[in-house]
Amino acid sequence: MKNETAKASLVTCITERKEDFYRLAYSYVKNKDDALDIVQESIQKALTSVESVKNPDVIKSWFYKILVRTAIDYLRKQKKLKVMDDETIEFLSRGKEDHYKDTDLHEALDDLPHQYKTIIILRFFEDLKLEEIADITGENINTVKTRLYRGLKLMRIQLTKEDLS
User: How far is CA 152 from CA 12, 43, 57, in A?
Assistant: First the structure.
């Protein structure tokens, strides 16, 4: 009975928040197809281990955790497979990626280490509470707060440098 309840909660969560999950995956990879692959892989992982969830109320943060880890794993694999230099990739991919309205902000966010970037995305783009972020990242709430403020400070420094240039 619990397995069916957890599975139903997972399906409901994914259905209701599919755009949020896609947006989060996209924020890591900046590519529609790769983001969809990450979401799909995360769903597969979640469905195979949903019976491990004791409390269906934590399904949302549990799935966010799977999604973040899957996206980071994907990026690690991509680093190992890097064949072309960044300039060549950028030249070849012009016009094929989505573009943000505020590119400076998103570039500053992209330049952050994953530990800061994840927390900022979950807090400001996914509108999650600090407690939920701590659960998703597996970190202490004080660590989450510290990384949030440090990440924002690093972004502010980066944006200020760009303004002065």
Answer: 33, 31, 30
Q: What is the pLDDT of residues 91-146, one digit of tens each?
A: 555 554 444 456 777 788 888 888 898 898 888 888 888 998 998 888 999 999 99
- Amino acid (one-letter) located at 156: R
Instruction: Read off the tokens for 43.
Output: 């769903």
* pTM of the predicted protein model: 0.69
Contacts of 139 (CB under 8 A, 6+ apart): 147
> Which ranges in the chain are annotated with CATH 1.10.1740.10?
1-96
In whole angstroms, what is the distance from residue 114 CA to residue 109 CA? 10
Q: 77: which 2 tokens? A: 């694999």
By CB atoms closer than 10 A (0-12, 13-18, 19+), residue 121 is: buried
Which CATH architecture best describes the domain 100-165? Answer: Orthogonal Bundle (1.10)
**Region 1-96: CATH code:** 1.10.1740.10
* Cβ atoms of residues 120 and 151 within 8 Å: yes
Of 83, 38, 89, residue with least CA distance to 63: 38
